[in-house]
What does this fold into?
Amino acid sequence: MADSRGMVSEALTISSHRQGQPIPKILLMGLRRCGKSSICQVMFHNMQPLDTLYIESTSRPAATVFSSFIDFEVVELPGQTNVTDGWNDDIEKLFIESGALIYVIDSQDEYINSLANLHSIIIHAVQINPQINIEVFIHKVDDLSEDFRLDAQRDITQRVTDELLDDGLLNVPLSFHLTSIFDHSVYEAFSRVVQKKLPQLATLENLLNVVCQHSGIEKAFLFDIKSKIFVATDSSPMDVPTYEICTDFIDITVDMNSLYKIDSQDQNAGAKNTGDDYEPYSSGQEGGKKESKPIGSTTRLSNGLIVHLQQMVKGLALVCLMRKESMPKIALVEYNIEFFRNALEQLQQLA
It folds into this structure.
């Protein structure tokens, strides 16, 4: 019990603060070797999925700060941490400061123990913070067939909801996601988690709908460039291949941009626009900070679709898919995107 309480206290100690207030947290929990560290390393530290095979099991709490249109902190707790073992102020504070709790289940292993651990955590978490979102990542599904993936999701969903109903918990904010670090599913699932904590989500979606309607754009995403999390998209249906194309195009654009210098001053300063050294575009409104040129790119796919990327504020990028008939109107598209950029800046100032 003492060790578990020490883990919780350490998780609170390493947390970051913004203007004296703690940054909102997303808790990442699960049993040992379920894939928590791999998710963090791939999403926030640009590690290749195969390299995660050599990651050691997490022994101490670890925090990763996500700084984009909104700021939040992902706090990973080791698998041996038992936050339900006893009741203390640290446990209560940890759940109160967390807007979401992600619980990772290894779908390739026997998950009975994981479900029992998840059930006890949910009971404690919702008692302390009824508004906390519980997100279950059914992880490592890359080696499972489509039928087995759906069967595992149905089985886990049924077991968890039945146990909660037996305890009289009827309205727990609970979601289930099939994820893997070897495809884009973990990025999409994490994006859904972040969007639930974004107060400006409805406004961003309306703005994207307006841009698409008046620019001949079929689908638009607002991505965080570094993590590939999309903070918003328009209301048109989204399919996985489209999402994958957009995320891959961000990587290509950033890599290509790093090959070319903007001016000699940037070269002498050793500035790079790739990987962890990537400098997000600034709107120039932050205390005399020099404004850098936003990246942008357009390409035509083999099926005739056009992919257009424009960097926005605070490390965001607008990625649009258009038909080739929209290319003669690209000046109008960029004109409308500039208005969208200005709206983002105003929303950022209000936030």
User: Anything to note?
Assistant: The first helix runs from residue 2 to 13.
